[in-house]
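Exercise 7. Given the components listed, write out the predicted structure of the assembled complex. Treat all entries as one system.
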Amino acid sequence: MTDPARDAPTSKARGYSVRTLPGFAIVALFTFVVLYAPIMILVTYSFNAGTSLAIWEGFSLRWYQRAIANEQVQDAALRSLYLATVAASVGTVAATMAALATTRIRRFPGRTMIYALVNQPLMVPEIVTAVALLIVFAAVKVWTGHTSMIYLIVAHTAFCVPFAYLPIRARLETMDTSLEAAAADLYASRWQVFRRVTLPLMWPGIVAGLLLAFVISLDDVVITEFVKSAGQDTLPTYMLGQLRRVVTPEINAISTAILVAGAILVSLFFMLTMRKR
Amino acid sequence: MTDTSPPFAPGDLEAEAARQDNRRRWLLSLPALIIIVCAATGPLLVMVVYSFLAPGDYGNVKWEFSTDGWVGIFLQRDIFDDTLMWADAHLSIFWRSLSLSLITTVTTLIFGVPTAWFIATQPPGRREFWLFLITVPFWTNLLVRTIAIQELLRAEGVFNNILISIGVIDTPIQLMFTNFAIAFGMTYVYLPLMVLPVYAAVDKLDFRLVEAAHDLYAGRWTAFRRVILPLIKPGIIAGSILVFIPSLGAYVTPRVLGGGKNLMFGNLIELQFGAGRNWPLGAALSLMLMAAVMVSLIWYVRVTSREQADD
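Answer.
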């Protein structure tokens, strides 16, 4: 929101603007360079023909070919995608229901508690949640002897819920309730109102929430590292394990792939949340 | 307004409708609540129990009551004569966590405030572009960004190569596995968390007040210190908290950039569940970290509500 009267440059005539602070622009531009330079270098060396991460020996795609042919990488990438898809979908459905329940009402008994619980995973450092899950799942694994992906799915779903909840709730709060009231006046049943009016209106929020949850799940290292059983590496935990060995540009190639995928998802998220303004 | 209450209902019908509506809202929230209680809140409560048990011989716990986990945070037993003494290793790790988190907060302030100012004073159409540039790295994989810093700081990395080629140093200096590497990495990783709230504060700033300061013969620096800074203080506090909290609980960045010697709080916790084989101590340490975060959050809420009360 911009207030034209406030934003109009009043001292234009003298070329003197109160918005300029000496050195700030230089520091800002420096910051942008520092923010992007390491990523650019990482991406550049993923195309290096040699095995060095610092000496350029010509352009090549060999590290991408090697990463794609690496069965551990394939395995971890597929597991990451599977996990993120399931956890983000389940988390978004749960978050959508919770958002519908907690918005567009002044107050009802327990609303603050629901709100606090839904956001609880955001309040606690990830490492703390991770070791708490390690403790509980270790006991469950001993009792049941069951070591499938279900533990990772449950753990990821739990932190997907608050991330999906935020954009959905934000969307709901800006929505006009009069359209739903109008539909109800026209004898639409409660379900028809939801299906034909509420859902289409809140859809961008739901998709934004889904994307955000998907990205968060795809990026997670800490919780996955503590919850996974043997042979359940995701792409990030596989990379973390590899860092202890000799690092080749193969890691850069995998990183670049993750960066590109992430950038596309974030751009989509931005387009969805910005459009309404 | 609830869409369930019939428009012309008499009193008790209305109350009944409100009750029904409440029940419906709880039912709708139930799936989310079950998931979070099972895989976040519940395990945290279990961890409280575990912190009062005795460590098992090969990890895990023995089911007998013990306060050794909590005592072990600050004190350790001498292996020869069993006397209690300060756990120096732990204290130095707490100190590192605290000081590196504070340093990270200050450096993100130094770079973040001018950046936020720069973005907020761009012409309206261009602000989204710069904001997008700040946000994208934040949503890209934290591990990937840490790896990027690692490659920058390695002995044969870009940093050392540049320093050698311009003749500042002859042989590579050790940058990796130092406190500097951790602070640098955390500043890099958490910078957007500082820029965004400060940007929001500058965006709301009424520039007529700044003009008034200039009219009253304040220089740019005085106007900044006496007028702008107090007005954008809520954003600066929010940004500082948003940077400080994840720094305190950081795990990935110190693990990759700090190595095995420069542990932070998060790595000390991990150690108890790995080689340390002391789950009760790990549980107690986790709860302590959580308490530290809660204290920061409560302090933040109190400060901001006081600021709002002042307005």
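Discussion: Residues 11-86 of chain B form one domain. Chain B has two domains: 11-86, 88-310.
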